[in-house]
Every structure is written in C-alpha cells, then in structure tokens.
Amino acid sequence: MTDSIKAILVHGLLIFSLNSTLFAQSDLERGRELFKNKKYAEARSIFEKISNESDHQAEAYYYLGSIYLRFDRDPDKAVDLLEKAIESENANAKYHLMLSNALGAKAMQSNMLKQAFLAPKIKKEMEKAVELDPNYAEARMALTQFYVMAPGIMGGSIGKAKEQADALVKLDAYQGFMAYASIYNHEEDWQAAEGYFKKAIAAQPLKATPYHQLGYMYLKQKRTKEAVEQFKKMAEYDPANANSYDSLGDGYLADNKLDDAITSYKKAVSIDPKFGPSVFNLAKCYEKKNMKKEAKDNYKRYLALVPTGSQADEARSKLEE
User: In this structure, are 39 and 126 located in the same domain?
Assistant: First the structure.
C-alpha cells in the first residue's frame, strides 16, 4: 500500500470518527431539548439509541431513568437506569440526586419494612450529591426534606435539617426560606412557617412551590378558603403541571365543593393521564355524589396505574363493596 493511499484512508477514518461524534452530539442535544419540553416518549427513543451506541452512555442512562420516573411512573426501572449512569460516571452530583428521587418514589409504593430498608440508601445518595457539589442547592433542599420527614431511627434529624437550611440561605435565599418553612411546618409552628413561606414568595413570586406548600399548611389548619387561593396561584404560575390542579381539587374537596373538585381533578388527568392521585380523588368525589359507576371506573383506572400501596388497597376494598 502506498503512502498516499494510507494517507487517504487515515483521513477518511478521521472524518468518519468526527462525523460520528457530531451526530452523537446532535442526538444528545435533541434529546435534551425534547426532555426539557416534556416530550418524553420521543426523548426516550433518542436516549435509548445513545445508550447503545455512543460515549454519552452515562447521560443517556440519566435521562432514561428520569423519564421512567416522571413519565412512566416506574421507579424500579428508573433505579436500574440511574445506577447504570452512576456506574459510568460516579462523580456527577445530579445523577446521585435523581437516584435518591427514584428510591424515594419506590419507598412511597412500599410497606414500612421496605421503607426502612430504602431510607439509608436515599440518604446516602442525597449526601453524596451534596458532597460532590456543596453549592448544589436542589440537593441540599432534598436532604433537608429527608432529615425533616424521616424518623430518627431512619436518619431523620431536625438539627441536621437546620444545618442544611443555614447553608441554603447563603446559597439561595429563596431555597433557604423554603427549607426553614418546611422545618417549621413539620414542627407545626404555623406562625414561623407562614412567615418563611411568605418570605419565599417575596423572593420568587412566580414560583409555584411556595403557594402549593402554604396551601396544604392552611388545609391542616382548616383554613380551606385561604388554601384554595394559594392553589389557584399555583395553577396560575404552573398551569402545565397536573399537580397544580390536583392540589386545587384537594382545596375544593376540603371545602366540600365537589363539582369544582371534579373539574380540577379532570383537568389534572387531561394534562397527565397517568397522574394517579387525581384519578383516585375523582373516584372519591364520585362516591360522595353517589355516582357509583363513575366511582367504580376510576377506582379500576387507579389500580391499573398504581397497583400497590395503601390507596390501591383502599380502591380494591371499595370495588369489593
């Protein structure tokens, strides 16, 4: 083989390699954009291709895990994929945080024994995310929530939650205020919690989350009309989120406005047909209105979406009746 032919072949291989890299990058960017726009089914096909063919496997597994968690409501599959992402790239904080979210979703569908088994894993992944990136406000917020909600025997600690809240205030005032609000809300110090929720709203008035959490705090206090107002704000600022209308439905249901609640829950299901809580709540509303067929249909639909857990058990019991 002459030197000139060798040179042509080498040049051709370089061009092929460069083009392959560019195509992979283009696929990755397209997949990210589809994911950002919540076109999860289309994004999944792209990330499945990338996970089999390219050097971007870790990120592909991360997005696939996120899709199975958010869109397919399959935390078991999400955990498997996110563990693969971490095996490929262990030093990525967002992968560890998303794995903790998937493990948390799995725990919510499990009995108390399984939750006790999963709790240390959830905590470990959140702590790893903070260790890898101390400025990762979202990870610190998640860890705050874990410390607040978990029993002491499973790693919960109000003292540690306040340490994370202190750090968050310095990183991001809004997140810090929300962290303190969640702590005081859990401790039922309503006045302090309400003050921090309002500080968070003043810091970021277009964020839906403070209205959501403040609304449920009002429901705990039987302040139903104030709760409904907060949920309306949530729906105004996050209208594409099924949970906005599910929460508004909860407010109307607490206020015994069943028709308004049904309208809100239907809106949530129209946004996300797999949003189980609204399907279950529709069944409850129809049952209260003595609309037995509609109640039965929605309990069945809920079981198809969420076959395990306390509400699934309640749905089966209602159908047996």
Answer: yes
